[in-house]
Structures are given as structure tokens and as C-alpha cells.
């Protein structure tokens, strides 16, 4: 309640502002109230979400894990990606249009999504599960457990998330991987580990460059081809590179198709 009081005091000169400014302030206050009211319900939704079963999703299947690196543009690998038994993509890649399919593929069976809405870098894009289902999406995996989990999950289900198979990565599994890396794992790293743990027949990786090259220009609309600030998001591309290099040798199933930073 004291936070709401602070915000009202902050905007005490509201009526001295223009109509456009007042509308902007009103939207901020309504958003704040929406987040606070929805969060407890979100944690109830989260509690009842099914834990991800690696074997049921990936066992004995050829899995294509497709990231948004710009390196993949112009390679014409879309058809090859679509031939995989299971295609995994991430966040805003659900919004790639037909012009991207020749390089990144049309098929999308599993979407790793942080469910944090908004247009800013670090947010995950529009939350539109009903539209995602129409595009043929099979399942959503929410791979994190963060302070924003309650609001994010509530907002997702309010907007139709119950129409899709939705899984959570249990916090203890997430933190186990995080401790192993001594940093916050990227969704791509989580997808690779889960596919291998699910005893996939083969895991082919596309569009991953460990933040050494830029993202596809359509991944961050309005802020094209940005490199991720690793310090801001507590990622470590070096540690992930080392772990993946070890997994390639140990599993015999992990294959970086393009780009291949290990060649």
C-alpha cells in the first residue's frame, strides 16, 4: 500500500499535466494495480502447472533447437529445420513472419518463453497464446522462477494460456543448472540440457553464437540486431560455451549445424 501512496504522491501534480500526460500516468497506475492484484493468482496457476517431462517431449526424437542469431539469415536452412521431429524456438521467434521461414523454419513445436510482456529488450514480446495456438504451436515451457513469476503466469493464463499445453521447469532443476554455470542460464542452454536429459536421438542446434554475433533484426522489433548485455541479465556465454563443448564430447548427440563455433 505504501508503494501505491508513493506513486500517487509522485503524480500529485497530475491535474497540471496535459491530457496526454494524464492518460500516460493513469495507464502506469492501472498497470501497477493489475500486477499487484494478479500476482497471487499467478502463483496459484504456477503451482498447478505440469512439470516438464523431458522424456515425454524428446525421447528418441530428432530435435532442432533454433536460436535467433543473425548468422542464420540467408542460409536457407528452414526446410532442414522443419524436417526435425521436434522444433524448439524461443520468445519473440513466435512472431517471425513468412519472410524468415526460409532461414529459421516454419515449424514450432515447443516455445521456451519467459512470459514477461512488453516491447523492451529483456522482455519477451507480446503474450498471445490464442494466436500462438493458431500458428500450430504445440507446447510452452516456462523455464524460470523469478520475482515476476506470479504476474507473468497470471497474465499468460488470463490471455488464454489454458488452451496450450504449458509446462514449468521446477525451481530446483533451474537452480541446479544455474549453480553448475555459476550464472543465470539462457533459455537456449536450458533447452539443450533438457533435450539431452530427455534422451533425444539427436539434438541439432541452429542460430546460436553465444552472444558473439548479433540477433536477427526481427527478434527485437524497433531495436534491431542488438547484442545482449550479459552483465545486465547475469548470463555467461563463456561458461555456457565450456559446458556445451563438454556436452558435445560426452553425449555424442549434440550437433551445432550453423553457425558452428566449435569447428
**Cα separation of the termini:** 56 Å
Q: Whole-number average pLDDT?
A: 84
Largest sheet: 8 strands, parallel
Tally of individual domains: 2
CATH H-tier superfamily of the largest domain? Glycosyl transferase family 29
Quaternary structure type? single chain
**Secondary structure category:** alpha/beta
- In the CATH scheme, what's the topology name of the largest domain? sialyltransferase cstii, chain A
Question: SSE order, as H and E?
Answer: HHEHEHEHEHEHEHHEHHE
Which CATH C-level class of the largest domain is it? Answer: Alpha Beta
**Helical residue percent band:** 40-55%
Classify the beta-strand content into a percent band. Answer: 5-15%
Query: What is the CA-based Rg, rounded?
Result: 20 Å
The CATH architecture of the largest domain comes to Alpha-Beta Complex
List the total number of helices. 11
- Lateral strand order in the biggest sheet: 1-6-5-4-3-2-7-8
Q: What ranges have pLDDT less than 50 throughout 5 or more consecutive residues?
A: 222-226
Number of strands: 8
Shape: globular
Notes on the protein architecture:
- With 263 residues, this protein is α/β, with parallel strands linked by helices.
- The chain has two domains: 1-48; 51-258, Glycosyl transferase family 29 (sialyltransferase cstii, chain A), CATH 3.90.1480.
- The chain is built from eleven helices and eight strands.
- Strand 4, helix 6 and strand 5 (139-142) form a beta-alpha-beta unit.
- Helix 2 packs across helix 7 (149-158).
- The longest helix is centred in the N-terminal third of the chain and has 30 residues, at 19-48.
- Residues 222-226 have low confidence and may be disordered.
Amino acid at each position: 500500500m505504501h508503494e501505491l501512496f508513493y506513486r500517487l504522491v509522485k503524480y500529485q501534480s497530475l491535474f497540471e499535466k496535459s491530457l496526454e500526460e494524464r492518460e500516460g500516468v493513469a495507464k502506469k497506475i492501472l498497470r501497477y494495480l493489475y500486477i499487484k492484484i494478479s500476482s497471487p493468482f499467478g502463483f496459484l496457476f504456477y503451482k498447478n502447472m505440469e512439470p516438464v517431462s523431458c522424456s515425454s517431449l524428446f525421447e528418441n526424437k530428432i530435435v532442432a533447437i533454433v536460436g535467433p542469431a543473425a548468422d542464420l539469415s540467408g542460409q536457407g536452412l528452414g526446410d532442414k529445420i522443419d524436417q526435425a521431429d521436434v522444433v524448439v524456438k524461443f520468445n519473440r521467434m513466435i512472431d517471425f513472419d513468412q519472410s524468415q521461414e526460409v532461414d529459421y523454419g516454419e515449424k514450432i513445436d515447443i516455445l521456451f518463453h519467459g512470459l514477461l510482456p512488453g516491447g523492451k529488450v529483456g522482455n519477451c514480446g507480446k503474450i498471445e497464446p490464442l494466436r500462438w495456438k493458431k500458428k500450430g504451436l504445440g507446447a510452452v515451457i516456462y523455464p524460470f522462477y523469478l520475482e515476476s513469476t506470479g504476474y507473468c503466469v497470471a497474465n499468460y493464463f488470463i490471455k488464454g494460456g489454458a488452451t496450450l499445453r504449458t509446462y514449468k521447469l521446477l525451481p530446483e532443476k533451474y537452480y541446479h543448472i544455474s549453480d553448475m554455470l555459476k550464472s543465470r542460464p539462457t533459455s537456449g542452454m536450458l533447452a539443450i540440457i533438457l533435450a539431452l536429459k530427455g534422451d533425444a536421438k539427436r539434438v541439432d542446434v541452429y542460430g546460436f553464437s553465444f552472444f558473439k554475433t548479433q540477433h536477427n533484426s526481427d527478434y527485437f522489433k524497433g531495436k534491431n540486431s542488438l547484442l545482449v548485455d550479459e552483465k545486465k541479465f547475469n548470463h555467461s556465454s563463456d561458461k555456457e560455451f565450456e559446458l556445451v563443448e563438454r556436452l558435445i564430447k560426452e553425449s555424442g548427440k549434440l550437433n551445432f549445424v550453423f553457425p558452428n563455433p566449435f569447428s
